[in-house]
Amino acid sequence: ETGVTQTPRHLVMGMTNKKSLKCEQHLGHNAMYWYKQSAKKPLELMFVYNFKEQTENNSVPSRFSPECPNSSHLFLHLHTLQPEDSALYLCASSQDSEVVASEQYFGPGTRLTVT
Amino acid sequence: GQNIDQPTEMTATEGAIVQINCTYQTSGFNGLFWYQQHAGEAPTFLSYNVLDGLEEKGRFSSFLSRSKGYSYLLLKELQMKDSASYLCAVKDSNYQLIWGAGTKLIIKP
């Protein structure tokens, strides 16, 4: 596999379920990101990890819990979600989150539907 | 607050030229990025501008004016495969990317 992969690609869950999204990057990068993308809205940055340390948490509700065991893997643990959390969740990686010209490479996303 | 503005939707004809504008107000400036996102797919990097002027990359060019808080993406010789959303993003003083909502470009034969 090359680039950034995400699993699952689609997920339907009830409000009382617990599930996890997985992201893996094969680019040798040191920074990983979770974004939420809703229709016709800007990408919302949720979490940033740089060299496995969480550097940003943009006021994300505690029902979203990130985990970064190493620079290649990133998880987003979900529990007791709300219908308004339905969106496309994108993972991205870059060489270093504090290098200005470092572009981000995105995975294909997980389409999440909360019922 | 921080803000990125770009048109919601544009339509152009195959073979023509289209210019997608982006204006920004951010806390600091560490460069501006353009990404392309086809429906149902991941955004892919197109260009990065940090100095004023025009950067050309094949059929795509990107322009930046820092004093005006303005950028545009110019697409020449449009092809049907260029139908996509184009996302403008600015890296602020905290190295965070601030994103616009994207411009959906529709190419007609």
Briefly, what is this?
Chain A has 115 residues and is mainly β. Chain A has no helices and eleven strands. In chain A, a hairpin with a 2-residue loop joins strand 7 and strand 8.
How would you characterize this protein structure?
The complex is a heterodimer of chains A (115) and B (109). Chain A has 115 residues and is mostly beta strands. Chain A has strands at residues 4-7, 10-13, 18-25, 31-37, 44-50, 53-57, 64-70, 73-79, 87-94, 105-106, 110-114. In chain A, strands 2, 4, 5, 6, 9, 10 and 11 form a 7-stranded mixed beta sheet that branches. A 4-stranded antiparallel beta sheet of chain A has the order 1-3-8-7, with no helix packed on it. In chain A, strand 7 and strand 8 (73-79) form a beta hairpin. The termini of chain A are far apart. The relative contact order of chain A is 0.33. The mean pLDDT of chain A is 92. The mean pLDDT of chain B is 96. Chain B is mainly beta and 109 residues long. Chain B has no helices and 11 strands. Classes of the chains: A mainly beta (115), B mainly beta (109). The interface between A and B is medium-sized, with 20 and 23 residues.
Q: Using the CA coordinates, give the radius of gyration of chain B.
A: 13 Å
Kindly state the percentage of residues in helix of chain B. Answer: under 10%
Q: What is the strand tally of chain A?
A: 11
Biggest interface in this structure? A-B, 20 and 23 residues
**Based on helices, strands and strand pairing, what is the structural class of chain B?**
mainly beta
Give the H and E element order of chain B: EEEEEEEEEEE
Low-confidence sequence ranges of chain B: none
Q: Return residue spans of chain A where pLDDT drops below 50 for at least 5 consecutive residues.
A: none
Beta fraction of chain A: over 45%
Largest sheet report of chain A: 7 strands, mixed
Mean pLDDT level of chain B: 96
Mean pLDDT of chain A: 92
Structural class of chain A: mainly beta
- N-to-C terminal Cα separation of chain A, in Å? 32 Å
> Quaternary arrangement of the chains shown?
heterodimer
